[in-house]
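Sample intake sheet
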Amino acid sequence: MSEDPRLAAARYRAAHGGEDADGEADAADPGSRTAKAYSAADRAAVVETAIQQAIRRGEFDDLPGAGKPLPDLGDHHDPDWWIRRKIETEQLTGLGPPALMLRVESDALEASLDQLTRESEVRDALEDFNRRVVEARRQLLGGPPVVTATRDIEVEVAAWAQRRESRAAAEATAKAVDAAAQRRRRWWRRPDA
C-alpha cells in the first residue's frame, strides 16, 4: 500500500464538493468541530503513518551518520549531553553556573584590565567583579560552591599601573631600536617613501 488512506479520502471529498453523502461539512475543514475533536492518539497515528511511508520510500536511507553511534556520548548517563555539545560546537560563552563563570573571569581579569585606559575604569571593573563574587556567594540556587576570591582594588590598580608602565617602556625601547636602525641606513640608499 503506497498511499495513505486518509489522504485518499481527503482527495475524494475535495473532488466531490467537500460534503459527505448526508450533506455534512468536511471533517478535514479546520473550522469544523470534527477536526477539533481529533485526539492526541489520532494525531500520533497520522505522524507515525507519515514516518513509516517515508521509511518505505527510502527518504531516511542516505542521512549523514546513518548506522553509526552518536559521538562523544560517554560512559555515564548525562541528561544534558545535547546542551553541552551545542555549547561546544557553537563556542558559546557566558553560559553556566555563576561559580564557574566567575572562576573563568578571574583567570582572565588581568588581561581585561590591561585593555582599559583609565584608572577609574579599572576601579569600576574591579568593584563590579567583587560585587558579583559576593552576590554569587549569597545565592541559594545551588550549583558548585563559589571559591573565587574578591580582589583588593588598591593592589590590583597598582599592579595595573606597573604593567602599563612596563608596556610603555617596552614600546619606547622598540621605537629607539627602530630609530637607530633608520640612522644606520647606508648613505647611498634612497629613503623609503
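Comment: The CA atoms of residues 102 and 148 lie 7 Å apart. Helices lie at 5-15, 33-36, 40-57, 81-90, 98-107, 109-114, 119-138, 153-183.
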